[in-house]
């Protein structure tokens, strides 16, 4: 708990774990320097890097016009991202005797993420409005780039739609996961996790989703978490199918592993139900399309049952309206249904493979 007689040493401290991010980490740091409410301290934990991430971060830290920045090197870290985060938090706590005495708030963000200039200011307002909040999660949007092929543009576009839809539909209460791209924590809540289990982020080789596991731990400790649509983070997209599938298998496999470990609880049951409904929903959609195609082939022309056509039209309209905030191009893509159907096939593959590996393979490792 915070010292009753002293204000914390800092107001807001940022911890950035960075592994092989020499081309991205500067953009993340620049977005922090551009905040309307600048952080008091930035800790960059260079984690098992093999490139020039440390040099880029050091060059930023040496500039006189940026927030105070310390670059911590962790070249042989067996606990991967969770270990890097805990290392940064331990270094911060050492400055004042405890984490809660060192800072009021800690912002954790990925090194391939950029924050809206008002992110810190808005997150602080949300946290100050409710003392029972342990954290505020960013609302994430995909960041486009220069793609070399039509296929890469398609993958990027579908990820942008995916992020945008989730940003506008995720629950503001009982948030499933505090986003690794940007999570703003109350140090009092993190200090409680340290008291209860000796660390904030679970340092286990099978913990592929430290953000989800920590979200559950906060809820289990009595804290609430929320997401705010005005606390915006922009994150990189996967330009290649192999990279996208690998990323999503890690996310989904890690989430399934944690849910299996925790079991059916009031904090996991919604996530379990959503996963099952997601698989069942796609199976139903695929079956519906197969029946429609079969009837069309049998008739020699597209099946024209008015009820089926009405359902198809309603689904097309619903898909378009769900992405209205992203503009008319996204609405047109979703209304046409076929692009999303192809992406659903890809999504079902990584969801199914993640389920299979969670139950059949050994302990997963974070890569």
Automatic annotation (TrEMBL):
Pfam families cross-referenced by the UniProt entry: Glyco_tranf_2_3
CDD domains to which the protein is assigned, alphabetical: CESA_like (cd06423)
InterPro entries the UniProt entry points to: Nucleotide-diphossugar_trans
Gene3D superfamilies tied to this protein: Spore Coat Polysaccharide Biosynthesis Protein SpsA, Chain A
SUPFAM superfamilies in the record: Nucleotide-diphospho-sugar transferases
Keywords: Glycosyltransferase, Membrane, Transferase, Transmembrane, Transmembrane helix
Highest taxon in the source lineage: Bacteria
Transmembrane segments: 272-294, 306-324
Family listed: Belongs to the glycosyltransferase 2 family.
PANTHER family: POLY-BETA-1,6-N-ACETYL-D-GLUCOSAMINE SYNTHASE (PTHR43630)
Protein name: Glycosyltransferase family 2 protein
Species: Streptomyces durbertensis
């Amino acid at each position: 708990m915070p010292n009753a007689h002293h204000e914390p040493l800092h107001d807001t401290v940022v911890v950035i774990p960075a592994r092989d991010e020499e081309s991205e980490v500067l953009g993340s740091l620049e977005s922090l320097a551009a905040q309307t409410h600048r952080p008091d301290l930035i800790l960059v934990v260079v984690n098992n890097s093999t490139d020039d991430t440390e040099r880029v971060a050091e060059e930023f830290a040496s500039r006189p016009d940026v927030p105070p920045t310390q670059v911590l090197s962790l070249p042989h870290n067996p606990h991967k991202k969770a270990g890097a985060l805990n290392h940064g938090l331990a270094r911060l706590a050492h400055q004042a005797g405890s984490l809660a005495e060192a800072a009021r708030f800690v912002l954790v963000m990925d090194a391939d993420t950029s924050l809206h200039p008002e992110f810190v200011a808005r997150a602080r307002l949300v946290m100050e409005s409710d003392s029972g909040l342990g954290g505020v999660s960013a609302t994430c949007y995909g960041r486009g780039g220069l793609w070399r092929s039509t296929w890469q543009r398609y993958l990027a576009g579908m990820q942008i739609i995916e992020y945008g839809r989730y940003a506008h539909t995720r629950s503001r209460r009982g948030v499933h996961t505090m986003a690794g791209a940007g999570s703003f924590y109350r140090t009092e809540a993190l200090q409680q996790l340290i008291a209860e289990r000796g660390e904030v982020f679970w340092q286990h080789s099978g913990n592929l989703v430290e953000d989800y596991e920590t979200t559950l731990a906060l809820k289990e400790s009595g804290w609430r978490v929320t997401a705010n649509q005005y606390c915006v983070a922009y994150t990189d997209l996967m330009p290649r199918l192999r990279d996208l599938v690998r990323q999503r298998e890690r996310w989904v496999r890690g989430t399934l592993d944690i849910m299996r470990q925790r079991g059916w609880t009031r904090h996991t049951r919604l996530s379990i139900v959503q996963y099952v409904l997601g698989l069942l929903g796609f199976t139903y959609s695929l079956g519906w399309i197969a029946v429609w195609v079969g009837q069309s082939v049998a008739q020699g022309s597209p099946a024209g049952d008015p009820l089926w056509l009405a359902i198809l039209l309603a689904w097309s309209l619903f898909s378009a309206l769900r992405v209205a905030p992203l503009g008319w191009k996204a609405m047109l893509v979703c209304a046409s249904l076929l692009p999303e159907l192809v992406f659903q096939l890809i999504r079902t593959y990584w969801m199914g493979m993640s389920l299979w590996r969670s139950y059949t393979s050994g302990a997963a490792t974070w890569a």
